Amino acid sequence: MAGFAIVVYAFAVVLVVMVVWSITHRRRPAQLSARAVPVIAAARRRALIAVGFAFVVFLAGAVAGVTFPSLLGMPFAAMPLVAGASGLLLYAATPPRDVSVAAEQVRTAGLTRRSWLTTAPAGWMHVCLEVVLVFVALVIFCGVTAQADDHGRSRAIGFADDEYATLASPYPGWFYGIPALAGLALLVVSTIIALRRIVATAAFPHPDDHDADAQWRRASTAVVLKLASGALLFSVGGIAMTAGFAMRNALIEGATPVVWGVIADILSIMGVLFLVLSIVSVTLAALTAFTIGERLARLPEPVR
User: Fold this and answer.
1) Which of 266-271's residues contact partners 24+ apart within 8 Å by CB, and which partners?
2) Most exposed of 45, 70, 287, 299 (fewest Cβ within 10 Å)?
3) At what angle do helices 210-250 and 174-200 cross, to 10 degrees?
4) What is the pLDDT of residues 14-68, one digit of tens each?
5) Would you tell me the crossing angle of helices 2-24 and 258-290 to the nearest 10 degrees?
6) CA dist., res. 111 & res. 119, Å (int)
7) Which has the closest alpha carbon to 88: 237, 213, 227, 283?
8) Long-range CB contacts (< 8 A, 24+ apart) of 62-68?
9) Which residues contact 137 (CB under 8 A, 6 or more apart)?
C-alpha cells in the first residue's frame, strides 16, 4: 500500500506541474537576440530532460520496491536521492550548446570570476543545506533509537514495561539509514558537478549578451537546486512519516513516556509537510526549466 501511495505521489507531481503551468504561464513572443535563441532553447531542453529523467528513475525505483517485497522496502530508502542524482548527472553529461562565432568575429569575455557558490540563488542554496542537516540529524536519530527485528536487522522500534513489550516495523533504522546516507552523498556530489558544469560553460561572445548569459546560468542553477531540494525533501518526508507511524504503533498506552508520543506526532506531521514541499520543489524545478530565458529583454537588431 505504501508503494502504491508513492507511485500516486509521483503522478501527482506531473499533475501539479501541468495544472500550475496552465494557470500561471502565458506564452510571450521571443525576447532574445537571434544569436542567443538556439543556446537558450538548448539550455531549456537540457534542464527539462534532466527533470524528466529523474522522474523516470523515481518511478522505476518505486516499481522495484513494490514488485520485490523481499527487498523490505530498501529501494525506497535511497530512491528519491538516486533519482535526483541521476537527473543531475545526465544534465552534467549533456554537452551545452555554444553561440556560433564567425572566424573573423572577435570573441569577448568578462574578467569577473564565476563560481557555482555565487551563481546559484542564495535562497535555494540555503534550503538545500538546511534540508541536508535535517536529513542527517533524522537518520542518526532513527538509527540510534532503532532496534533489531526478528532477523537482527536495524529496522524496528519497540518499548517495554514490566508486563508488555512491543516491536513495530518497518522503522528507518540503520538498515535503511546507511543506504539513505549513501544516496545523500551521491546527490550532493551530483549537484556540485551539475552546478560546476553550468559555471564552466563558455560565456556568450558578444558584450550585449552579458545579461542573457548571467540570467540563463542563474535560472539553470535554480533548476538544479530545486530538483535536488525536491529529492531531499521527499526522502526526509518519507523517513519522518515512516518513523512517526512505527513509533506510534509501538507505544504502550499508560506505560511509555508521553514524550515518545509527542515525538511520533511531530515526525508524522513533519513527514506529510515535507512530502508536500517536495511536490512544490519539483514543480518549481520543471516550471523554471520551461521558462529559462523568457525574462530576457529583446536586443535591437543591428541596422544594415
Assistant:
1) 267/240, 267/241, 267/243, 268/240, 268/241, 268/244, 269/244, 270/237, 270/240, 270/241, 270/244, 271/236, 271/237, 271/238, 271/239, 271/240, 271/241, 271/242, 271/243, 271/244
2) 70
3) 180
4) 677 667 767 776 655 445 566 667 777 888 889 999 999 998 998 888 888 777 7
5) 40
6) 15
7) 227
8) 62/3, 62/6, 62/7, 62/10, 63/7, 65/3, 65/6, 66/3, 66/4, 66/7
9) none
The three-class DSSP label of residue 86 is helix
Report pLDDT digits (tens) over 216-261.
888 889 999 999 999 999 999 989 999 999 999 888 887 778 899 8
Residue 147: strand, helix, or coil? strand
Residues 6+ apart with CB under 8 A from 32: 40, 212, 293, 296, 298, 299
Q: Are 202 and 98 in contact (CB under 8 A)?
A: yes
Nearest CA-CA partner of 73 in 170, 203, 156 = 170
DSSP track, 28-39: ----S-TTTHHH
Domain residue spans in the chain? 2-20+45-96+121-199+210-290
Q: Which residues share a beta bridge with 147? A: 156
Contact (CB, 8 A) for 215 and 296: yes
pTM over 0.85: no
* pLDDT at residue number 301: 45
Q: Which three cell numbers stand for residue 72?
A: 523490505
Distance between CA atoms of residues 133 and 116, nearest Å: 20
